[in-house]
Amino acid sequence: MYIIKGDLIFSKDRDSLNCIKDGYIGVENGYIEFVDNQIPSEYKNISILDYSNKLIIPGFCDLHTHAPQFENIGLGMDKQLLPWLNNHTFPTEARYSDVDYAYKRYEYVVEKLIQSGTTRACIFGTIHKQSCQVLINLMQQKGIRGYVGKVNMDINSPEYLIEDSNASIQDTLDFYNSNKDNEDVKPIITPRFAPSCKEDTLAKLGEIVKEFNIPVQTHMDENLNEIKWVEELFPNYTTYADVYEKNNLLSNRTVMAHCIYLKDSELEVLNQRGVYIAHCPHSNANLASGIMPAKPYLEKGLKIGFGSDVSGGNEIGILKSMVLSLQLSKIRHHFYPDESTLSVNEAFYMATKSGGEFFGKVGTFENNYEFDALVIDDNDLTINNDLSLEQRLSRFVFAGDDRNIIKRYCFGKEVG
Ligand code: GUN
Ligand code: FE
């Protein structure tokens, strides 16, 4: 057991921020035993990691990113979703049939995630199960936790990146069976998006989800041309969400990336099922996809976390997602004055506790939660001010970066 001391900031709910100046967190076997402004008497002899005057915040949760696309950051940014996939993304992902290639690239990916303050991530690999295994092994070795998905693509994809339908299902089962007992990094069912899977494949994936109770990640309602294409491909379904719903892919263990253009009935079904939305502001801006109405969705009860969505997104760290989501929410307000705007506290909540909930008891400093944390040295950001803890958080969010993060903990262990 150890005790960590510093200026604690964490969310318990969407509206408020909990701040404890010179607070203490007791950590045993990865779990939080106590959070207090003094050390409870029964813990007086435990060693203390003293980060006085530094901020301690929960680690960031990235609900949606693509490991093979890190090498494409900043490329192809003059295109929209479908041509971007065909011209930039698919050719790059095809290289991950080579496991040695994947090892080199994924080592960099995991290091970059850690550097940016992400301690939990929900990640797309490629269709290649061996390369996805490499990614799981590297995350485990380097100490961050989360989910990795072997992607399913068996239709409407280039011949160099398409699977035989039976092999797609079999490889998914193999990948699941090899990793189902891993407590640190777990497998997740990952149909790329409705257009890249046959209806029968979606149905089979849904059956696997139901049988083994496995989480799901995919994309939805990202781009207007994509939505139109789904309507053409799936004429027997009422909406894009209905394609996933009818095939048993929506539950409170599903992450749905983007969801910019939800129809009322889609919003309702996501709410009913308790689906998590991955809000990916950088990707949505770069690919000219649109601006997700984050605040109205929160007000309607939807569960939202952030996704970096590299390489639609150009920023690896969730700190930057917070800032852009706040800025975009104000730009939306300019066009839709009836919509209110996100607050910094809400963005912090989405980056930590709200996104963290997908991974279990993660994303805040409360008893029995898994201890993920970042220690922030914000001295250079606050040198001319006498700021409250809430103001220091806001300053760090808007003016800080990776260099202010001096320690990272995931499930109680230091990483990086
Ligand atoms: N939709 C299907 N595949 C992708 C992808 O790789 N990135 C994004 N942003 N959207 C997608
Ligand atoms: Fe994506």
Question: What would you say this structure looks like, in words?
Answer:
The structure is a single chain. With 416 residues, the protein is of the alpha/beta class. 38% of the residues lie in helices and 23% in strands. It has 14 helices and 17 strands. Strands 3-2-1-4-15-16-17 form a seven-stranded mixed β-sheet. A four-stranded parallel β-sheet has the order 5-6-7-9. Helix 8 links the parallel strand 12 and strand 13 (276-279). Helix 3 packs parallel to helix 4 (165-179) and helix 4 packs parallel to helix 5. The model has no long low-confidence stretch (mean pLDDT 98). Bound molecules: guanine (GUN) and fe (iii) ion. Residues 66, 81, 85, 89, 192-193, 219, 222, 283, 309, 312 line the site of guanine (GUN).
Key features of this structure:
416 residues, alpha/beta, seven-stranded mixed sheet, 38% helix, binds guanine
